[in-house]
Design goal:
Layout: E1 5-18, E2 21-34, E3 38-42, H1 49-56, E4 64-69, E5 72-73, H2 79-89, E6 90-93, H3 105-115, H4 120-133, H5 149-161, E7 167-171, H6 179-196, E8 199-203, H7 207-210, E9 215-220, E10 223-229
Parallel strand pairs: 3-8, 3-9, 6-7, 7-8
Antiparallel strand pairs: 1-2, 1-4, 4-5, 9-10
The chain binds adenosine-5'-triphosphate and magnesium ion (MG).
The site of magnesium ion has 4 residues, from helix 1.
């Protein structure tokens, strides 16, 4: 086994069973992702991208096949061990942002650090730093129901980054935001990847966004149909375009 691989997936399948109906979302998928990669996953709607992301984030289990995350066979971990890995090693930015609507933007970003037992002052400082990074320093005390969809997306990004995760999983991180802001988010991802060595796996529908990554995996009907290195990732510019 390659000891450097942060993700090792082998012959993975996922079949959803609902009311007597079976849907094959993933079918015999195998690949590895090394530490420090920046991977874009592309493919049409319903091709299995989010299903794959949930499994990679240890939020769901495959029907068959193996998933080894940073040397640990996910199948053998207890629920407590999984929760701990999710909290400490993985940053999630999902399609449904899962922000708590009644607490403030700042508190939403502080929350994962609270689960990790980080002292309040440090939580506040870190949360503020990442919210400023995504251009929301002026919205700290709004609740997440009082900000726009694109701003909510950016709160979710700040929250995903706040624990400084070795592995960042992002499902359409630029899906609901204007293109100048998307460019800014990509600049942040590239900075994390190039300067800090974070591994990033990002789902996107947009070829322009995927062009910033170092490798593009394309999924169709639950199968990988192409997996290519991107020899010349387009550098995204920090434009301070965020409002
Ligand atoms: N909980 C579920 N129960 C049953 N079927 C599901 C469930 N989640 C997803 N599916 C089905 O599995 C397939 C893959 O869904 P998935 O959400 O992974 O697609 P996707 O590639 O992320 O699509 P999109 O680009 O629209 O987000 C789809 O056919 C979908 O209808
Ligand atoms: Mg999806």
């Amino acid at each position: 086994m390659n000891t450097q691989g942060i993700i090792h997936v082998s012959h993975l399948s996922k079949v959803y069973k609902t009311e007597g109906m079976e849907t094959t979302a993933l079918s015999d998928i195998s690949f590895d992702i090394q530490k420090g990669e920046f991977v874009a996953i592309m493919g049409p709607s319903g091709s299995g991208k989010s299903t794959l992301m949930h499994i990679l984030g240890a939020l769901d289990t495959p029907t068959t096949g193996q998933y080894i995350l940073d040397g640990e066979n996910v199948e053998n971990l207890t629920d407590d061990e999984l929760a701990d890995i999710r909290n400490k090693k993985i940053g999630f930015i999902f399609q449904a942002f899962n922000l708590l609507p009644r607490i403030t933007v700042l508190q939403n970003v502080m929350l994962p650090m609270r689960y990790a037992g980080i002292p309040e002052e440090e939580r506040k400082k870190t949360a503020q730093k990442y919210l400023e990074m995504v251009g929301l320093g002026h919205r700290l005390s709004h609740t997440s129901s009082q900000i726009s969809g694109g701003q909510q997306q950016r709160v979710a990004i700040a929250r995903g980054l706040a624990m400084n995760p070795a592995l960042l999983l992002a499902d359409e991180p630029t899906g609901n935001i204007a293109s100048a802001q998307a460019e800014e988010i990509m600049a942040i991802f590239q900075e994390l990847n190039n300067k800090q060595g974070h591994t990033i796996v990002m789902i996107t529908h947009e070829p322009d966004i995927a062009a910033h990554s170092k490798r593009i995996i394309t999924v169709k009907d639950g199968k990988i149909i192409s997996d290519k290195k991107n020899p010349k990732p387009i550098p995204a510019k920090r434009t301070n375009a965020i409002d």
